[in-house]
Specification:
One of its GO terms (molecular function) is pyridoxal phosphate binding. It holds the Pfam family Aminotran_1_2. InterPro entries: Aminotransferase_I/II_large (IPR004839), AON_synthase_class-II (IPR050087), PyrdxlP-dep_Trfase (IPR015424), PyrdxlP-dep_Trfase_major (IPR015421), PyrdxlP-dep_Trfase_small (IPR015422). The chain is α/β, with parallel strands linked by helices and about 425 residues long. The chain folds into 2 domains: about 140 residues, Aspartate Aminotransferase, domain 1, CATH 3.90.1150; about 230 residues, 3-Layer(aba) Sandwich (Aspartate Aminotransferase, domain 2). About 40% of the residues lie in helices and about 15% in strands. The protein has a 7-stranded mixed sheet, with helices on both faces. The chain has a 4-stranded mixed sheet with strand order 1-2-3-12. A 3-stranded antiparallel sheet has the order 11-14-13, with helices on one face. The protein is globular, with a radius of gyration of 22 Å. It binds 4'-deoxy-4'-aminopyridoxal-5'-phosphate.
C-alpha cells in the first residue's frame, strides 16, 4: 500500500481499491501525508476568527490573517449586530438548546416564528414551510420521506450531494447539466412508468455559480405532469429584485412545487427549509424521521428570523455584494482568467489541472489569500478550479490584493494562456 511520494501523483490516491475500513483510512492518511510532503495544505485548516472577509487561520502552527473567499456568509450577516443581538436574546430567553425533536416537545415559539417568517419571505402562507437543522437535511430528509420505490427523482447532474442522498429509497435518473433535451427524454420515458416524477435542480449551482434555465425547465416539468423542486441555497439574498433568489428573477416564486434552501449562507447561521403545499409540509413534519428522531435547532436561530427581515430592511448589503462581484469578476477576466458561466457570488477561476490547481491554492495562501482549490471528486479532474465566494464585506483593498496575486501567478504560470489554449 505504501506509495513512493517522490514519484506519486494525485491519481495514485484517487482509486481506492477493494480495501477494508482500516486500510481505506490508512490509504487516505497517506494521501494527506503526500499533500504535506508537497507543501500543499489539506484545507481542513483551523480558523481562529469569524468567517468574515478577513480570517485568522493556523497554518503550520502559525496564525495569520488572510483575505478569505471560503465563506458563504454572502451578506456578512454572521457579524451583523442586529442578528447577533437577536441570537443572544434567544439564548438569554430560552437557553442554549431545545432539548427534543419537534414531535416530542422540541417545537418552540421561536421555531414557529422562523417557519412563518421564511414562508412569508417567499410570499407563502403560514404552514407552507418546514425548517430543518441543516440545509443538507432539508433536501435529503424531504426527498427520503416523499419519494418511494414506485416514484422517480430526475436530477441535474450538478445538484448538491444532499439531493443524491435523498434519493436512496427511490429511482433516480440524472441528466447532463442544464440539458433540456436530455431532461425531456427522461420525462417522456418516465411518463407511464412511475407514480410521482420529481425534477430536482438548483437555482444557482454551487461550483460554477451559474443559474438554471428555470422557466424552460418549469414549462417542461408541467408539460409532462411532473413536480419541480428548486434548491436555491446560493441564490436567495443575492438574486432577484428583492433578494428572493433565482425564482424571483424567473417569475416562478409562487409556482414551483418545492423551494429548498439553507440558513447557513445569506442568513448567517445554520439550518435549512422546505417551502411547499401545506398538506405536504404537514406530512413532512409528522413523518420525516429527521423531524421525529432528531433534536430541533437551538434558540440562537432567532438571529435567522432577524436576518430574513434585514434582507428587506437593509438592501444596501445586496447592492454592495453586486458591486464587489462585478468588480472582482471584471478584474479576473481582464487578466485573461476563465470565470466560466457564473452569474452569482460564486466566482470560480478555472484551471483545469489538479496538481496546478493545488499549487495555485498554495501560492495564494503564501500571498495571504484563503480560497478553496476544488478538485475531483467535487468536480471532474479537468474542471479543477479555485472557487471563491465574494461577500458584501470584502473591501476594495481585499479584492485588489487578490487580483494582484492572480496577476503575479499568471505571469509565472501562464494560467490565462492555458485557458486560451484549452478553448482554442
Ligand atoms: N444545497 C446547496 C446547493 C449547497 O451548496 C449546500 C451547502 N453547501 C447545501 C444545500 C447544504 O446546506 P447546509 O450547509 O446548510 O447543510
Amino acid at each position: 500500500m505504501s506509495i513512493n511520494f517522490a514519484t506519486a501523483t494525485f491519481r495514485d490516491f484517487e482509486n481506492i481499491p477493494d480495501y477494508n475500513m482500516t486500510q481505506r483510512a490508512e490509504h487516505f492518511y497517506e494521501f494527506l501525508e503526500y499533500l504535506k510532503s508537497n507543501g500543499h495544505v489539506n484545507y481542513r485548516l483551523k480558523n481562529n476568527s469569524s468567517c468574515n472577509s478577513v480570517m485568522n487561520v493556523d497554518i503550520d502552527n502559525t496564525s495569520k490573517d488572510y483575505v478569505s473567499f471560503v465563506s458563504n456568509d454572502y451578506l456578512g450577516f454572521t457579524q451583523h449586530p442586529k442578528v447577533k443581538q437577536a441570537a443572544v436574546e434567544g439564548i438569554m430567553k430560552y437557553g442554549t438548546g431545545a432539548g427534543a425533536s419537534p414531535l416530542i416537545g422540541g417545537h418552540f415559539s421561536y421555531h414557529d416564528d422562523l417557519e412563518k417568517k421564511i414562508a412569508s419571505f417567499f410570499g407563502r402562507k403560514d404552514g407552507e414551510a418546514v425548517i430543518f437543522t441543516t440545509g443538507y437535511t432539508a433536501n435529503s430528509a424531504t426527498l427520503q420521506i416523499l419519494l418511494q420505490k414506485e416514484d422517480i427523482a430526475i436530477v441535474d447532474m450538478a445538484v448538491h450531494t444532499s439531493v443524491r442522498e435523498g434519493c436512496v429509497f427511490t429511482n433516480s435518473k440524472t441528466f447532463p447539466h442544464n440539458n433540456l433535451e436530455a431532461l425531456e427524454q427522461i420525462l417522456i420515458k418516465s411518463q407511464d412508468k412511475f407514480r410521482t416524477k420529481l425534477v430536482i435542480i438548483d437555482g444557482v449551482y454551487s461550483q460554477d455559480g451559474d443559474i438554471s434555465p428555470l422557466k424552460e425547465i418549469y414549462d417542461l416539468v408541467k408539460k409532462y405532469d411532473a413536480y419541480l423542486m428548486v434548491d436555491d441555497a446560493h441564490g436567495v439574498g443575492i438574486l432577484g429584485e428583492t433578494g428572493r433568489g433565482a425564482l424571483e428573477d424567473a417569475g416562478l416564486m409562487d409556482k414551483v412545487d418545492f423551494i429548498t434552501g439553507t440558513f447557513s449562507k445569506t442568513f448567517g447561521s445554520v439550518g435549512g427549509y422546505v417551502i411547499c403545499d401545506e398538506k405536504i409540509a404537514t406530512f413532512i413534519k409528522f413523518q420525516s424521521r429527521q423531524q421525529i428522531f432528531s433534536a430541533t435547532a437551538p434558540p440562537s436561530i432567532m438571529g435567522i428570523t432577524k436576518a430574513i427581515e434585514l434582507v428587506d430592511e437593509e438592501p444596501m448589503w445586496r447592492m454592495k455584494l453586486w458591486e464587489n462581484i462585478n468588480y472582482f469578476k471584471k478584474g479576473l477576466n481582464d487578466i485573461g482568467l476563465d470565470t466560466g458561466t457564473t452569474s452569482s457570488a460564486i466566482v470560480p477561476v478555472k484551471i483545469g489541472d489538479q496538481s496546478l490547481t493545488g499549487n495555485i491554492g498554495k501560492i495564494l495562501l503564501e500571498k495571504g489569500i484563503y480560497a478553496n482549490a476544488i478538485m475531483y471528486p467535487a468536480v471532474s479532474r479537468k474542471d479543477s478550479r479555485i472557487r471563491m465566494a465574494v461577500m458584501a464585506t470584502h473591501e476594495r483593498k481585499h479584492l485588489d490584493k487578490t487580483l494582484n496575486a492572480f496577476e503575479d501567478i499568471n505571469n509565472k504560470l501562464h494560467i490565462a494562456k492555458k485557458f486560451n489554449n484549452n478553448h482554442a
